[in-house]
Design a protein that fits this description.
With 777 residues, the chain is of the alpha+beta class. It is 33% helix and 29% strand. A 6-stranded antiparallel β-sheet has the order 13-12-11-16-15-14, sandwiched between helices. It has a 5-stranded antiparallel β-sheet with strand order 2-1-5-4-3. A hairpin with a 5-residue loop joins strand 18 and strand 19. It starts with 5 loop residues before the first strand and ends with a strand.
Length: 777
């Protein structure tokens, strides 16, 4: 059947002013019969009011023979010279689809949303996809102004603005938008192109658009951007809990409305993982987050342990080692939500609408560390296959960072335990000095350093004060520190002068570096000093170490001017010893470079701060240690710090007795008698018997095997010390005497009667000494 179109011209009062041939053929009425009559006279029935308001719709005309003629009518205003609407052109055609052309079929069946508007942004035509997006058929929209068909929103205003721009400027526009649509239950990403439609004369008569749904590409870009952001934001610190919090910060709210991270306790304690079983799995909540302030959806508080039954998605994810995805309506999902509601009823109303979740195992290096859970509540999309792939990748990155933090914590704990075992825990009381110390490990990601200190009792009431630093961090540094600390104690036992001790220590480090590349790479520094309370002199030498600070009783503080010498392990260079005489009550501060050196600090300024802090009033040396660290250290020091404070004491002349001994055996008895009288003067008659034997044996050996000058010295300290010096450098040694030997039993007798004995080299020879406990007062 031939399809006929009709055109009529009406004035503002609805009177027919023009009548086309197509109109005559459809109605059987000629122009002479119609022109000048009201258009209502031609209707077989009254049209609906909304059709008149919309200027479009279906009407039924009365044919000349009386039969009804249904037509689809569209009215278009005809503008006058003044631009005002006067007449209206009404087009009409029989209802029903026209026989489509190939171009019309392509437009209607296009896979993208396509629409045509007039210059006033009224719909003229939509294809099938556009109708699906709008959620209504085409005839409902035809002739309607665009703003009338959408909600009042920012994206709608932007769309309308672009339509007007194309109509007014005649230039095409291409842009992207992330918006919803009336018939779609979620927001979509659109790539929109608008272009002007021109008539034969080139005038713009309408606007056409094509909108491509690019949501898949948009979400793929979003997931890639999140992964890139995660690479920079997760693992910024080597802290397990902080790393878990960073994962939550990435996931919420862009990927999940609620998310949580639960870890095994052994991950937090840096222990070895136990074997997994099919029973309830105990996990500790370390982080969670929500798009709602306060995270009300959480049924488990931070730090609490939760038992996950085997049926639960988190337990299944851990036991099966894969992502468990669950949606609303599935029995496992509903059971899980019910269990959460029972455990945390206060958050029930916030969980209403939860419709999709994923439980993702956190696995690194073949070990499961815990599980991350993501839940969607307000986001309308369920998790899909692409989301599972994204979650696996994100969880894998986060798990590696968590495992790195766990391993760092374990190594730090091991290194710290090693250092605590090697450093002196409780320093025994010394007559020579009063000491206090602090060791402050840094929070640096590099790990625990190799700082150390020691207080070593020496013969003659002297004491060695030592501080050292192994360059580097971690277990290798701590192990090297242990070697050096042990070596210094061994060398101090030989009672070498500070410069000779450092020379032997340097040889040892050079030897170790030749066998162990780690020692060669680390390097070390050391300061060794010996304080003698009898002479009140401090002898010291340094190997690349900062000099000590001294505070005199009058409050004057200064750094000891000394040659630091080369670091240990350089080899071939000498160390220079020096002596400082200190009054009783002087304060000596030994420290490692972490106290005053930092990349953002001036060493001279930090040293001045140290001297000021050492002069501050304090109730005790322990309090002064804390005050120094607080005043000098920055909030987050980048290196370990060891601080050793020693306040000097002096032994007065009333506690020391000295006799020059002639190199004649006949003078032994006289010397023994003098020692006994001195003990009586000190009130130590109970120690006279042992002391007589010790003095007799040591003086006799010095006369027989040594060389003049010979001197006897008794020191009354916390122990009674007997010293015999002579001019020979030959060191004595114990030997087992045979049955018929006349000698060889003296030193053995001394060793059995005293607490300890030994010998040390001096500038003029040697000194043999023996200590015996004082009787209780």
């Amino acid at each position: 059947m031939e399809r006929v179109s009709a055109v009529a011209i009406l004035d503002a009062q609805g009177v027919v002013k023009g009548w086309s041939e197509g109109a005559r053929r459809l109605t059987g009425r000629t122009a002479e019969e119609v022109v000048g009559r009201p258009a209502r006279d031609l209707l077989a029935e009254e049209p609906p009011p909304e059709a008149l308001a919309a200027l479009t719709g279906t009407a039924v005309l009365c044919h000349r023979d009386g039969s009804p003629v249904p037509l689809t009518l569209r009215a278009h205003a005809v503008l006058g010279e003044d631009g005002a609407a006067g007449d209206f052109m009404v087009t009409g055609e029989p209802p029903g689809p026209a026989e489509p052309t190939l171009g019309g079929q392509a437009f209607q069946q296009a896979s993208m949303s396509m629409s045509v508007f007039d210059t006033e942004q009224r719909y003229l035509r939509l294809n099938d996809v556009a109708c699906q997006v709008m959620g209504v058929p085409e005839d409902v929209l035809i002739g309607r102004h665009f703003p009338e068909t959408v909600e009042e929103a920012r994206h709608s205003r932007g769309f309308h603005w672009h339509l007007r721009q194309v109509a007014e400027t005649g230039r095409p526009i291409r842009y992207e938008s992330f918006t919803g649509a009336p018939a779609l239950n979620r927001e979509h990403a659109w790539s929109i192109e608008m272009w002007p439609v021109r008539d034969a004369s080139g005038d713009v008569v309408g606007t056409a658009l094509a909108a491509f749904d690019s949501s898949d590409q948009y979400w793929a870009r979003e997931r890639l951007a999140l992964l890139n952001q995660a690479a920079a934001a997760i693992g910024t610190t080597l802290d397990v809990v902080r790393t878990a919090e960073e994962l939550i910060g990435i996931v919420v709210p862009r990927f999940a409305d609620f998310a949580s991270v639960d870890l095994f306790d052994w991950v937090l304690d840096a222990e070895e993982p136990p074997a997994l079983t099919g029973t309830d799995i105990a996990l500790r909540r370390v982080a969670h987050g929500s798009g709602t302030e306060g995270t009300p959806e959480a049924a488990v508080h931070l730090g609490e342990v939760d038992l996950y039954p085997p049926f639960s998605p988190p337990a299944r994810a851990i036991l099966e080692g894969r992502v468990i995805q669950s949606q609303a309506g599935e029995p496992a999902f509903m059971r899980w939500i019910a269990e959460r509601n029972a455990r945390g009823p206060a958050g029930r109303r916030h969980r209403v609408g939860a419709h999709s979740m994923m439980a993702v195992p956190l696995r690194a290096r073949g070990t499961t560390l815990g599980v991350a859970v993501a839940v969607r509540i307000r986001q309308s999309d369920d998790y899909g296959p692409d989301d599972v792939v994204f979650a696996e990748e994100l969880a894998s990155r986060a798990a590696v960072c968590i495992d790195n933090a766990r391993r760092f914590a374990r190594e730090r704990t091991t290194a710290l335990a090693l250092q605590h075992n090697l450093l002196p825990r409780g320093l025994s009381g010394q007559a020579a000095v009063e000491v206090a110390h602090r060791y402050r490990p840094s929070g640096s990601q590099a790990g625990i350093g190799g700082d150390w200190f020691d207080v070593i009792p020496l013969s003659g009431s002297r004491v060695a004060l030592v501080v050292g630093d192994v360059v580097g961090h971690g277990i290798p540094s701590s192990a090297t520190m242990g070697r050096l600390c042990t070596a210094v104690r061994t060398l101090a036992d030989v009672d070498l002068p500070p410069d000779e001790l450092l020379t032997h220590l340097d040889d040892l480090v050079t030897h170790l570096a030749g066998d162990d590349t780690e020692v060669a790479e680390l390097g070390a520094t050391c300061l060794y000093s010996v304080y003698d309370p009898v002479t009140r002199r401090l002898s010291l030498a340094a190997a690349g170490h900062p000099p000590p600070a001294v505070v005199l009783p009058d409050g004057t503080a200064q750094v000891v001017g000394m040659n630091a010498g080369p670091p240990l392990g350089v080899g071939g260079l000498p160390f220079e010893a020096m002596e400082v005489e200190l009054p009783e009550g002087a304060l000596v501060a030994l420290y490692t470079d972490g106290l005053i050196e930092d990349r953002d600090r001036d060493i001279d300024h930090a040293t001045a701060e140290l001297c000021r802090a050492l002069t501050a009033p304090a109730e005790s040396l322990d309090a002064l240690c804390d005050g120094v660290l607080k005043a000098v250290l920055p909030e987050d020091p980048s290196d370990d710090v060891a601080l050793l404070l020693a306040r000097t004491r002096a032994l007065g002349a009333d506690r020391i007795a000295t006799w020059d001994v002639a190199p004649d055996p006949e003078h032994v008895a006289t010397t023994r008698q003098a020692a006994t009288e001195q003990l009586t003067a000190w009130g130590l008659d109970e120690a006279a018997f042992v002391t007589e034997l010790v003095v007799s044996e040591l003086v006799t050996n010095a006369i027989r095997y040594g060389a003049p000058p010979i001197q006897l010295r008794l020191i009354r300290d916390r122990t009674l010390i007997c010293e015999v010096s002579d001019g020979s450098s030959t060191s004595p040694h114990l030997r087992r005497a045979h049955a018929y030997d006349e000698g060889g039993r003296g030193l053995l007798l001394v060793a059995q009667l005293t607490r300890r004995w030994g010998s040390r080299q001096t500038d003029s020879g040697k000194t043999i000494w023996a200590e015996q406990p004082l009787p209780p007062v």
